[in-house]
Write a structure and sequence with these properties.
globular; 260 residues; Arp2/3 complex 21 kDa subunit ARPC3; 4 strands; mainly alpha; 5% strand; two-stranded antiparallel sheet
Amino acid sequence: MIQNLLRDKPTKLLLIFTAFFVSNALIAESIGTKIFSLEKLFGQQPLNFTLFGQSGLGISLTCGVLLWPLEFIMTDIVNEYYGPKAVRRISYIAVALIGYAFLMFYLAMGVPAADFWYGSGVADGVPNMSNAFNSIFGQGMWIIFASITAFLVSQIVDVTVFHKIKKITGEKKVWLRATGSTLISQLVDSFIVLFIAFKIGKGWSWQLVFAICLINYTYKFIMAILLTPVIYWVEHAIEKYVGHDTAKRMKDAAMGKENE
């Protein structure tokens, strides 16, 4: 039986999508501790602008946002061919494994380090390897909780909006349901992360929360627009791989699962 499942092309695709989705989410969460300057990335000085009364702002983003647009593209593809139930299941798996990964990070931080390891990075400018390890993996609990909550809620929003639009447009206007659902869900994602992690967890002012939220969302908005052609490319590749008739049956079945 397992051999028949593995030979089934739609099943193979779902396994690949699930593996990429979970891996991408975990990597994004793990590298999200680093904040980078988008202006400096392109060799420019920070803009130093004022927004909602907050001065000295630049386009500072977490490295995690580099991967999240791919996550929402994958959500739309799975939604299109496998339906909202599949997206929810994959999202739950991703959340569970992200939580498991962070638990392992904290356990690793508590394991006593070997004496020789403490100073093993001095030549590279790292005087205490144990402190460096803990500072990288030791994200605050508010940030972890905020990130997981935002991811799960935004996935549900993306699925819901995607199928609401698809019910109206049918098979046409893929760009509208894919981009529209991503733009709305990304706004929800950006706000929840900042609200939980920094408004509740760090006591940021509402002005600062809204300012940083707008900066992050602007980046996500632009990326969602720029990556829209990728949706069409992936759909073309899927149809070529499974065949037109199978692809059509997959889409029809995905819509039929909406009310399950």
